[in-house]
């Protein structure tokens, strides 16, 4: 596979999805069809159906291991149907969340074991990991305040309404993942202004995926 796979990660309220949508506006003008933008859970019909089950606020009785398995199942379908074909076609793939989210949210946040969740996803992905991960770093309280102040109530999902202790465990999980994969992780201070975060993100992707932008 000749393409380049870059993931966006961060705790709730870090703004990574909003930033991603903004930088993509520029990248589409620069490289057009060479760009694939996708998300997890989701990215194709089957994975989006699984996403709706996972994030439905009415599914409060969902077992934590069931949740982790559903994420892995959605990821598998997303990988074989969407990501791998794009990488084989030499595309730049930008993905909003990937395996690291499961390790942080289910492994650490749900306390079912980071290594156990990582192993589950090794099976689901056949060890296909991103080239680089851009991590949007923000204190837990700041992120949750952003959600409370700015997010449309209809878009608040089952994980957004978890306790602050849960979100602190997620953040701790991310810190462990970032430490383990220092060569893969590039961190951005997400407490900066939106324009600063967008500008920094664009510069990073231009640098780490420079081959795609040579003619732009």
Automatic annotation (TrEMBL):
E.C. numbers: 2.7.4.9
GO biological process, one term: dTTP biosynthetic process
Catalytic activity: dTMP + ATP = dTDP + ADP
Gene3D superfamilies linked to this entry: P-loop containing nucleotide triphosphate hydrolases (3.40.50.300)
Keyword Kinase included in the entry's annotation: yes
Positions in coiled-coil regions: none
Stretches that traverse the bilayer: none
GO molecular function: ATP binding; dTMP kinase activity
Gene Ontology cellular-component annotations: cytosol
InterPro entries: P-loop_NTPase, Thymidylate_kin-like_dom, Thymidylate_kin_CS, Thymidylate_kinase
Annotated Thymidylate kinase-like domain residues: 8-200
Entry keywords, A to Z: ATP-binding, Kinase, Nucleotide biosynthesis, Nucleotide-binding, Transferase
Binding site for ATP: 10-17
Its biological purpose: Phosphorylation of dTMP to form dTDP in both de novo and salvage pathways of dTTP synthesis.
HAMAP family to which the protein is assigned, alphabetical: Thymidylate_kinase
Alphabetized PANTHER family for the sequence: THYMIDYLATE KINASE, UMP-CMP KINASE 2, MITOCHONDRIAL
Similarity comment: Belongs to the thymidylate kinase family.
Protein name according to UniProt: Thymidylate kinase
Organism (species): Lentilactobacillus diolivorans DSM 14421
The organism's taxonomic lineage, starting at the top: Bacteria, Bacillati, Bacillota, Bacilli, Lactobacillales
